[in-house]
């Protein structure tokens, strides 16, 4: 049991922190045109066929198996089926971790066509997944071939255009239907898995806009994280934007200090990009610059890493930016996709951008200017004790909106299932540098809360425009980060000096070009449970008209990891660490999965009361979607229930529920 727990926590760390869109226009109310339902990423459906009164009637309507659990698709790394399908013009479209694109009948789940890009399965990919495809209808093409195009960005960094009717490559796009996204990068990848694609591209104004997933902590000059726009018809490159300024006249240039600072890599956008066609804007959520935990070679504030950046979609010109973390030393990527919504505030309706963060903050920004709608203040944070490092002296905090997850833990807050566990946890926390939010990494080891898996994570947010409610899944567990001087690390026989129960749950990374090796782990007890108190994961709802927390509730359960029957019963209320997103419907429901209990959950959006759950063959470590094929027809809710090949389970199933 303890071994399984340790495997679980390592899987959680690697799933989110080692790496790591949309249709141009909204179609019929029953469609799901983009990863987040629409280009704005609201994850809201106006369908009302499933309601709070009848949700208990949901049952499995069909299951489709991708086949990728079969031996012929075997890889040397575990894969995660995390795609959110699209429903466009009467067909469901999705992709698999291996980049296979599949078209399904939405009523029966039967396959209409599939396309295999023949990804190299032996590549050293980090987060071996893909979260969906994007769709575009060419207004000039009529009913001919490739009039509707399905775009997939594969794990091996190819952008491929397919005919939505047949699945055949659109040969006039790029070279035979493909653009190689590794071409032309400022910093070329040093190995295949250093530069990947895991999110669907954004589509706006006849352009396909892509970010990238860059391996964390490998080297200072990691693969660069340019955002690029390609012509949706021809695949020609239209513009490139680098989050690390390369032009000395850019105001951000001065925020990167040191002879190697402008050669730094990453700061990439591995999450989903949102688009506003009326404003000709795309909203880019950027992440940490390389390396994540030591910034001595990139001193300064480090604009435009760890930011939400509005770019002119047609040109790539920056319109505004808002930095969520200055000089990141904690792997606080903006993993959550931005959501473009309209809120009621002080008697006005304001077009806004919602950006939830791993730090447990929800920033609500004016969509036209980037100015905070709810006040944000800069607060002093702890200084670094690492030679050559200079932590930024302040960080941004909401002054009125409540935090989504706990911001601090002390030894007095330690938790354990029995007295021995509690004492071990207290000692472990007491031995760490712990000065509250943004405690920098240290030689002795620092407590980091929220951890590198959040707070909010890549699951993102869902917004109910009728009620002004935003719903966010979060994690609450803390992490430990230690910087080990390289010579000491080698002299002591790498990690042999660490106790076995800590070593087994730790990740060690080299951070080439720095004086340190980084060790990171969730703060767990000797039995492998969190040292921070439950709920370990929860669902939080904020009322954006008042700026108050409406409700929060434990999300899922970790009971599958617990052998003792009494403890397993208690664990039903502990909440589960989760990786997956929510959706909201006009029927007053929130649907979300992504938990350890292998279930889809439905909650009342106004109260947080759980109304239904449906069993899955593995965890739905993805974002669900919902659709209706015809007016007055059945409403379906669909989830990729693929797990992760480890403690989230393993499956190749796409599961559809209906009444």
How would you describe the overall organization of this protein?
With 659 residues, the chain is mainly β. Helix content is 7%, strand content 32%. The strands form 12 sheets. A 5-stranded mixed β-sheet has the order 1-36-37-38-39, with no helix packed on it. Strands 2-42-41-40 form a 4-stranded antiparallel β-sheet. It has a 4-stranded antiparallel β-sheet with strand order 4-5-6-7, with no helix packed on it. The longest helix is centred in the N-terminal third of the chain and has 16 residues, at 2-17. It is globular and about 65 Å long. The two termini are 38 Å apart.
Compact description:
With 659 residues, this protein is mainly β. The chain has five helices and 42 strands.
**Major sheet, described briefly?**
5 strands, mixed
The radius of gyration over CA amounts to: 23 Å
Average pLDDT, rounded to a whole number, is: 93
The total count of helices amounts to 5
Give the tally of β-strands.
42
Poorly predicted regions are 1-8, 13-27
- Structural class of the secondary elements? mainly beta
Q: Any idea what the shape is?
A: globular
Helix content: under 10%
Strand-residue proportion: 25-35%
Separation of termini? 38 Å
| Biggest sheet, spatial arrangement of strands | 1-36-37-38-39
């Amino acid at each position: 049991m303890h071994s399984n727990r340790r495997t679980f926590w390592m899987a959680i760390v690697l799933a989110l922190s080692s790496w790591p869109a949309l249709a141009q226009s909204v179609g019929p109310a029953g469609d799901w045109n983009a990863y987040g339902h629409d280009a704005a990423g609201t994850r809201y459906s106006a369908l009302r066929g499933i309601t709070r009164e009848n949700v208990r009637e949901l049952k499995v309507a069909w299951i489709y198996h991708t086949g990728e659990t079969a031996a012929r698709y075997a890889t040397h790394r575990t894969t995660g089926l995390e795609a959110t399908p699209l429903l466009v013009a009467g067909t469901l479209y999705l992709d698999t971790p291996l980049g296979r694109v599949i078209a399904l009948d939405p009523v029966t789940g039967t396959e209409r066509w599939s396309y295999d890009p023949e990804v190299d399965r032996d590549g050293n990919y980090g987060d071996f997944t893909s979260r969906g495809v994007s769709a575009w209808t060419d207004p000039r093409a009529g009913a001919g071939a490739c009039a509707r195009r399905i775009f997939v960005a594969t794990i091996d960094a190819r952008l491929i255009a397919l005919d939505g009717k047949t699945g055949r490559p659109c040969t006039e796009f790029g070279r035979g239907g493909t653009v190689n996204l590794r071409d032309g990068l400022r910093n070329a990848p040093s190995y295949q898995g250093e530069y990947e694609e895991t999110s669907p591209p954004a589509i706006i104004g006849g352009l396909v806009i892509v970010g990238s997933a860059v391996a964390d902590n490998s080297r200072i000059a990691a693969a660069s994280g340019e955002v690029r726009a390609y012509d949706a018809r021809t695949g020609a490159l239209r513009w490139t934007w680098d989050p690390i300024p390369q032009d000395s006249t850019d105001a951000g240039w001065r925020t990167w200090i040191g002879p190697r600072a402008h050669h730094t890599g990453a700061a990439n956008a591995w999450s989903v990009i949102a688009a506003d066609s009326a404003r000709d804007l795309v909203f880019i959520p950027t992440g940490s610059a390389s390396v994540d935990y030591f910034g001595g070679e990139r001193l300064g504030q480090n604009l435009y890493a760890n930011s939400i950046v509005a770019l002119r979609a047609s040109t790539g010109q920056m319109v505004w930016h808002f930095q969520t973390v200055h000089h990141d030393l904690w792997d606080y990527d903006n993993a959550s996709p931005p959501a473009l919504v309209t809120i009621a505030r002080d008697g006005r309706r304001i077009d806004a951008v919602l950006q939830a963060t791993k730090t447990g903050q929800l920033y609500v920004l004016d969509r036209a200017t980037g100015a905070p709608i709810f006040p944000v203040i800069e607060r002093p944070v702890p200084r670094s004790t690492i030679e050559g490092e200079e932590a930024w002296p302040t960080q941004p905090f909401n002054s009125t909106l409540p935090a989504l997850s706990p911001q601090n833990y002390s030894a007095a807050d330690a938790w354990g299932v029995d007295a021995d566990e509690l004492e071990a946890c207290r000692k472990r926390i007491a031995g760490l540098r712990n000065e509250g939010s943004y405690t920098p990494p240290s030689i002795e080891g620092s407590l980091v809360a929220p951890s590198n898996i959040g707070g909010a994570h890549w699951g993102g947010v869902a917004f109910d425009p009728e009620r002004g409610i935003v719903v966010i899944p979060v994690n609450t567990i803390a992490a430990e980060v230690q910087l080990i001087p390289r010579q000491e690390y080698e002299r002591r026989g790498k990690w042999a000096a660490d106790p076995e129960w800590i070593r087994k749950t730790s990740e060690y990374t080299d951070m080439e070009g720095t004086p340190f090796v980084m060790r990171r782990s969730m703060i767990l007890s000797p039995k492998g449970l969190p040292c921070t108190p439950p709920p370990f994961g929860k669902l939080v709802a904020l009322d954006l008209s008042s700026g108050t927390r409406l409700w929060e509730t434990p999300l899922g359960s970790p009971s599958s990891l617990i052998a003792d029957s009494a403890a397993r019963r208690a664990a039903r209320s502990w909440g589960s660490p989760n990786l997956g997103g929510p959706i909201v419907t006009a029927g007053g429901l929130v649907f979300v999965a992504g938990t350890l209990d292998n279930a889809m959950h439905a909650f009342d959006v106004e109260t947080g009361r759980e109304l239904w759950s449906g069993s899955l063959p593995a965890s739905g470590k993805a974002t669900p979607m919902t659709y209706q094929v015809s007016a007055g027809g059945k409403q379906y809710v669909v989830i990729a229930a693929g797990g992760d090949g480890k403690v989230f389970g393993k499956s190749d199933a796409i599961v559809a529920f209906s009444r």
